[in-house]
Amino acid sequence: MHFSTIFAATALVGAAFAEDHTVAVSTKSGDLIFKPDSIKAAEGDTVTFKFWPKNHSIAQAAFASPCQPMANGFWSGFVPTTDTAAVANTTFTYEVKNASAPIWFYCTQGNHCNMGMVGVINPPTSGEKTLAAFKNASEAATGNVSPTSTAGTGGNLTVNGTTTSGSASSSASAPASSTGAASHLTGSVAFAGLTGLFTYFLL
Questions:
Q1: Does 186 share its domain with 165?
Q2: In this structure, how many other beta carbons lie within 10 angstroms of the beta carbon of residue 10?
Q3: Per-residue confidence (pLDDT) for residue 16, from 0 to 100
Q4: Which one in 1, 6, 18, 93 has a CA-CA gap of 20 to 30 Å to 25?
Q5: Is 16 strand, coil or helix?
Q6: What is the radius of gyration, based on Cα positions, of the chain?
Q7: pLDDT at 3
Q8: In angstroms, rounded to a whole number, what is the distance separating the alpha carbons of residues 30 and 25?
Q9: Are the CB atoms for 21 and 38 separated by under 8 Å?
């Protein structure tokens, strides 16, 4: 019983302190970039993509095949929006399962990938597989292919506040900055987890 208590408390504390990293998909002025295009995230962290006009997407790729969807990779679907004053009310969130494995991604719209609209989560710290090399390869690619899987696959697609979890990924943690209620809940979960740990050692 003590073991299950401390295990549950530790899991709750870990989830409470997971970080959400925000990535802008394009910009107000329509630049074909991800900002930032390189993200360092720990296991359990989430990466939330927020979309600017006009119509962009995110798909996972293998380093050796830029602008081509990776089998069982994530896919946001297309997110059209015309409001240049604010990001779209649709977001795509991916949870990092393995921080030691680089996650390469690209925009599948038109020739955006071929224009260098690519990025990476947890790039290698050494070797030839760099973001610059991936961009160069994407610009040399002859096509830009969209996945045929359902939009939201491999992550959480949120539209107007309603979230749909993709089949290849579990529900992601709520961004700490999303609402005051979410922040309060995170703090409460952390407190509950720590209380469980202290209770265990006192018994």
A1: no
A2: 14
A3: 62
A4: 18
A5: helix
A6: 19
A7: 44
A8: 9
A9: no
Instruction: Please say whether the beta carbons of 59 and 149 come within 8 A.
Output: no
DSSP 34-89: EESSEE---TT-EEEEEE-SSEE--EEE-TTSTTSPPTT--B---EE---TTS--S
Integer Cα distance of 28 and 21 in angstroms: 19
State how many domains the chain has. Answer: 2
Q: Which residue has the tokens 């910009």?
A: 27
Report the alpha-carbon distance of residue 195 to residue 139 in Å, rounded: 53
Sign of CA dihedral 97, 123, 76, 14: positive
Q: Do residues 92 and 4 both lie within one domain?
A: no
Mean pLDDT by 10 residues, the chain (203 residues): 45 67 96 98 98 97 98 97 92 97 98 98 95 98 96 96 69 32 35 37 37
Rounded to an integer, what distance in angstroms lies between the CA atom of residue 76 and that of residue 154? 8
Do 124 and 196 belong to one domain?
A: no
Q: Are residues 133 and 61 in the same domain?
A: yes
Which pLDDT score is estimated for 164?
A: 87
Helix/strand/coil for 177: coil
Q: For residue 6, give Cα distances in angstroms to 186, 188, 202.
A: 18, 17, 12
